[in-house]
Amino acid sequence: MKPNMSLKKNPMPSQDPKVRARNFKEVALGYDEAVAIDEALRCLECKNPACVAGCPVNIRIPEFIKKVKEGDFEGAYNVISETSSLPAVCGRVCPQETQCEAKCVRGIKGEPVGIGRLERFVADWHNAHSEKTPECAAPNGKKVAVVGSGPSGLTCAGDLAKKGFEVTVFEALHLAGGVLVYGIPEFRLPKKIVGQEIENLKAMGVKLETNIIIGKTLTVDELFDMGFEAVFIGSGAGLPRFMGIPGESLKGVYSANEYLTRSNLMKSYENEPVTPIMKGGRVVVVGGGNVAMDAARTALRLGAEKVYIVYRRSMDELPARREEVEHAIEEGVEFKLLNNPVEIIGFNNPDDPRDPKNGFVTGMKCIRMELGEPDEKGRRRPIEVPDSEFLLEVDTVIMSIGTSPNPLIKTTTEGLEVNRHGGIIVEEVSGKTSRDGVYAGGDAVTGAATVISAMGAGKLAARSIAEFLLK
Amino acid sequence: MYRIVSKKLLNPTVCMMEIEAPFVAKKAEPGQFIILRVDESGERIPLTVAGFDREKGTVKIIFQIVGATTLKLNALSEGDFIQDFAGPLGVATRVEGLRKVLIIGGGVGCAIALPIAEKLSANGCEVTSVIGFRSKELLILEDEFKAVSDKLFVMTDDGSYGERGNVCVPVSRILSEGERFDEVIVIGPLIMMKFAVEAVRPYGIPCTVSMNPIMIDGTGMCGGCRLSLNRDGEKVIKFACVDGPDFNGYEVDFDEAMSRSAMYRDFERHAYEETCNLFKKKGVNK
Asked: Hey, do A143-238+404-469 and A242-401 end up sharing a CATH topology, with the first three levels equal?
């Protein structure tokens, strides 16, 4: 087969920005078989593939792409699923541009191979055409508990199940998936996809217990008493941060976690929702990460007439994925860069303390910033420009400035060491915590990071747990 | 799924249910709460634990029928199942070392105050209880309070039962007569807690209140339940689900909490009316 030497990736078919900004259907529509094969033909099958090293779970990328070239999509799926438990998810939410695709030789002159798009295609093809689940080793009789059903927990569970362990995943919420279901919106990651990946795990024998809050309903020690021989903690990032400025308790101020949880997990975006959310009006999101982009784009789809992003640095420092930022701009989100909130203003009728409008947000006061000298991390420090305050008239404010770790597990697990930020301390090479038989990974260890890095940590821990229990 | 083992209406607007939830029953302590969803498309609501039976594996909840979800919950019968029931969440009420306590309960808040009174009484603590209701029809749990209280004052706003007036009347009287307590525990509507705290404040007795703000996950993740404390002149934000639900009553910003609790009032009223109409059409008994 002749390689496709086009310098550009096959574009991803997407909903028109004007249309999609008002619906919750998936933005990117995915390749069809012909386009997938054409894109696969751009891969040169390097002898020493740099892309594999760039993938946190080391998917054998040229190998699966070769199968796509041959039209053997199920074969391609088998290659991916040997190392990744959630390919349909990763193909959608991984920051490929800084990982596998950043290392692709085709990217030196032109665009890299669309590895993420191909991964997504393969996973979707499998889910649409095949009932087959990955093969698992014979049961080895050993029980492992996984705390949290987000990306790290699901990956760890899947890998252990493949190795023959009896795995039970404990989830605090009523629905499995963690951030994949409460955080990442439908238009970026349809819940059906997450559901399918979880069904795949169940078919492999993984048990799922919802409504169990480890640290409250059961403690880590009780899990050992119940016969589990190892525990993986992937409990996620935790408590939302606020800025500490006046007005943050006014009605109409949300954490991004709350806003997204209402919309995604509780389905407030539906026509007749049972869980309320403030819709429409003017919305400002504070922060520049992927979560901020998700919140801003959700606000548009909930009917906002205007959505701003306020971020204290410039476009160059914006931590969100480029693609998400571009999507947000295309859809009409206005970026107010080099600005920082100083106060949120609420309605107050001095003549009538019972006025129902009292206490609702009417605006956010911001101050302009400029970039000064680089800080210890090399990022230029934002400095306030004196006397540059201005008012942004808004009805809803969404704070998306990060999270701090959840105290529920550490306060009820004796001997589990955490760092000064509250993250669980683990050995980098194994994911092992200070407690024997207890492993951890994902945001509970690192603080807010990416889905794929959490999956990498879940994978590492699964390997360590297998070594620990089978030695 | 979690089975409703028993159901009883305590008054026309307050319902008691025992739910089979062995894991929760094993751990629950007075002052903690659970989160439930009635059905697969339901909202998550927090309810404070009103009792538990560790051997039977059941947890008691007592709720006022105020909104769409509690209306739907009340439409279920003994033997029916509710979709989700998770807990126990929050920090249990601190009772250790207390020898003499004044408990103030208002309305359905009495349901949460009772297990605390029971636990204190079982620990050998001297308990004085003041419970208040709008009128005689709304009175609940009088006998249960009588059983665990050394002294009991029953108040109704309209004087249709017990003494006429709100809970602050006997509280101010007892305290001004010189009686002292190790702690005062107040549980009820926000406005009642606000005034009860003010009635106690001049005497400097430690005063705990139980907050019940709007919540989603109940595990610290959403921050919707945040409230402001005024701690030595500085504003501190706390999350009721993981830091509470009990707080130092002298520090709580009740006005802000009341404002926040009304954030979705229009939506809630609409949802309640819709559900009422739906039930009427279907002929569901209340």
From this structure: yes
Searching chain A, which residue's CA lies closest to the CA of residue B265? A356
Per domain, the residue ranges of chain B are 2-89, 100-261
CATH architecture of A143-238+404-469: 3-Layer(bba) Sandwich (3.50)
Look at A217 and B86 and tell me if their CB atoms are within 8 Å. yes
Those residues with Cβ within 8 angstroms of residue A378's Cβ, 6 or more apart along the chain or in another chain: none
Residue B181, min C-alpha distance to chain A (Å): 31
Chain B residues with CB under 8 Å of A217 CB are: 23-24, 27, 86-88
Work out the minimum CA distance from B263 to partner chain A, whole angstroms.
Answer: 6
CB-based contact A394:A364 (threshold 8 Å):
yes
C-alpha distances in Å from residue B227, one per residue of A82, B91, B242: 47, 16, 12
Which one of A168, A173, A344, A443 makes the best mutation probe of the B interface by having the most chain B beta carbons within 10 Å?
A: A173
Classify domain B100-261 by CATH number: 3.40.50.80
Name which of A174, A257, A258 is nearest B84 (Cβ-Cβ): A174
CA-to-CA distance for B116 and B149, rounded, in angstroms? 11
Q: Looking at CA atoms only, how far is residue B142 from chain A in angstroms? A: 31
Averaged over successive runs of 10 residues, the pLDDT of chain A (471 residues) comes to 91 93 93 96 94 91 97 95 87 88 94 96 93 84 96 94 96 96 94 91 94 96 97 92 95 96 90 88 96 97 96 92 92 97 95 90 97 85 95 97 87 92 92 96 89 90 95 80
Q: Do A174 and B86 touch (CB under 8 A)?
A: yes
Q: How far apart are CA A116 and CA A94, in angstroms?
A: 7
**Which helix (H) or strand (E) covers residue A452, if one does?**
helix A451-470
- What is the nearest CA distance from A67 to chain B, expressed in angstroms? 41
Q: Which residues contact A288 (CB under 8 A, 6 or more apart)?
A: A309, A311, A313, A317, A318, A319, A320
Q: Could you check whether B2-89 and B100-261 share the same CATH topology? A: no
Which residues does chain B have within 8 Å of residue A177's beta carbon, measured at their own beta carbons? none
Q: Which among A147, A210, A213 is the top mutation candidate for probing chain B, defined by the most B β-carbons within 10 Å of its own β-carbon?
A: A213
pLDDT tens-place string over residues B4-62: 999 999 999 999 999 999 999 999 999 999 999 999 989 999 999 999 999 999 999 99
Query: What predicted TM-score, i.e. pTM, was given to this entire model?
Result: 0.93
Task: Locate the domains of chain A by residue range.
Answer: 17-129, 143-238+404-469, 242-401
Fold of B2-89: Elongation Factor Tu (Ef-tu); domain 3 (2.40.30)
* Rounded distance between C-alpha atoms, residue A76 and residue A60, angstroms: 10
**Cα angle value A352/A356/A362 (rounded, 5°):** 95
- Taking a C-beta distance cutoff of 8 angstroms, is the pair A203, B14 a contact? no
CATH number corresponding to A242-401: 3.50.50.60
CB pairs under 8 A between A and B: 112
Contact: A406, B219; criterion CB under 8 Å: yes
d(CA A273, CA A262): 10
Q: What pLDDT was estimated at residue B285?
A: 54
Nearest CA of chain A to the CA of B217: how many Å? 7
Q: Domain A17-129 maps to which CATH number in 3.30.1330.80, 1.10.1040.50, 3.90.800.10, 1.10.1060.10?
A: 1.10.1060.10
Core vs surface per residue B248-272: b (16+ CB within 10 A) or e: ebbbbbbebbebbbebbeebbeebb
Query: Is B226 in the A-facing interface, judged by CB distances under 8 Å?
Result: yes
